[in-house]
Each structure stands twice: as C-alpha cells, then as structure tokens.
Design goal:
220 residues; alpha/beta; Rossmann fold; 2 domains; 8-stranded mixed sheet; globular; binds 5-O-phosphono-beta-D-ribofuranosylamine
C-alpha cells in the first residue's frame, strides 16, 4: 500500500450524505488509536449536513459536490473521482453516501472502496431495510461491511454484526441498535484494510491471506 509521505499513515477519503455518525466513529477510532489512518477529506453530495460539521470540528478538510448541479450521473461521478483522487487516498470509505455509483467509478476504486449497509447481506439490499425486516416479521437483522463492486450492495461481505428483532421494535429502535454495531465493525474493517490484512482478489474478500468464504462475525 502506498503510504502518505507526509504522515506515513494510510489515507482515507470518506463520502457522506447525511448525519455522519459512522464518520464520527471512524474519527473516534483514530483518536483512540484503534485505527491507524488519517482522513484526508470528507466529501458530501449534500450541503449543510451534520457530517460536514463533524469533519470540520475534527479539523478535516471538506468538499461539497452537489449532484443536482450535474447533467448526468456519469458527469457527477467523474467530478467526484477527480476530487477524491486529488487526495490520493489508499481507501475510499462510503459512510451513508446515498448515491448509486456508475460502473466506471466503481471499477476505478476496485479493491479500495468499502461500504456499510444496514442488513445481513445478501438479504435486504437497497433502502428501508429496517422497515422491510419488520414488515416481514423477521427475528434477526444486522449490518454488513462490504467491498464495493458494480452490483448494488452486492460486493463481497467482510464483516457482519447481528441484532435480534424484539417484539417491541420500531424502525427507530432497530436503527439505533444497528448503528451501535455499525460504529464498532466499520472502524475494525478499515483497520484490517490499512494494516494490509484485508484485500479483494477477483470477487473474493481475503483476510490474512485466506478467503472469507463467510463474513467475519462481530459477537457482542
Ligand atoms: C447507516 O445506517 C449506514 O448503514 C447506511 O447509511 C447510514 C449512514 O448513517 N449506509 P450515518 O450518516 O453514518 O449516521
């Protein structure tokens, strides 16, 4: 992995669209010494979101790239790619970035872009996962960190955390318990990557040189 010359730390660029609680968890993990990386920039496609404030509070440069100002998805993704590459990151971290990405963009970051998705993938790809689990009367839910590939929410899963669905659960209560798990497993997966323990070979996630035929499980 090419290390940033100035700091000799692996460099992250984090993409957000909203509250940025996962961004905060990553910032906190770096501060606590659990994650040996630096965030070169936080990029948001929406102005005035809490995540941008969190970045500013942590002294991290921010970029806002408003997707509504672009004529096409491809034009936006090209501009986004230029912004990201200007920071020369080792890893691109999608943290609540609510955009469907073009295949060219995804391919450019093959093996060096992660996402966190609030379901036990391959179950419940797409949006409104908590609502759909409740509607289906599911007893178990969770969250997955995965490599990003051109298939939406379909890339190889690295680590998951499971959460039981309680009879009293609402979308909000479920979302809250899921987010507590997100904030544990995302910094952990990123640390594996920056340590060089986690790689993507073809369409296979590898941890410590072994194929992750099943995702790692975070046990509470
Ligand atoms: C999280 O639930 C994550 O799983 C999903 O988007 C949400 C982002 O939340 N991809 P936050 O902005 O990190 O608080």
């Amino acid at each position: 992995m090419s290390l940033n010359k100035q700091t000799a730390l692996p460099t992250l660029v984090v993409l957000i669209s909203g509250s940025g609680s996962n961004l905060q968890a990553i910032i906190n993990a770096i501060k606590a010494g659990r994650l040996n990386a630096r965030i070169a920039a936080v990029i948001s496609n929406r102005a005035d979101v809490l995540g941008l404030q969190r970045a500013t509070d942590a002294g991290i440069p921010t970029v806002t790239l408003d997707h509504t100002r672009f004529d096409s998805r491809a034009a936006f993704d090209q501009a986004l790619q230029a912004q990201i590459d200007g920071f020369e990151p080792d890893l691109v971290v999608l943290a609540g970035f609510m955009r469907i990405l073009t295949p060219d963009f995804v391919r450019h970051y093959a093996g060096r872009m992660l996402n966190i998705h609030p379901s036990l993938l391959p179950l419940y790809k797409g949006i409104h996962t908590h609502r759909r689990v409740l509607e289906d009367g599911g007893h178990e839910h969770g969250v997955s960190v995965h490599f990003v590939t051109p298939e939406l929410d379909g890339g190889p899963v690295i680590i998951q955390a499971k959460v039981p669905v309680l009879p009293s659960d609402t979308e909000q209560s479920l979302a809250q318990r899921i987010q507590e798990q997100e904030h544990i497993i995302y910094p952990r997966a990123i640390q594996w990557f920056v340590e060089g323990r986690l790689t993507l070979e073809g369409n296979q996630a590898m941890l410590d040189g072994k194929a992750l035929t099943r995702p790692a499980q975070h046990l509470n």
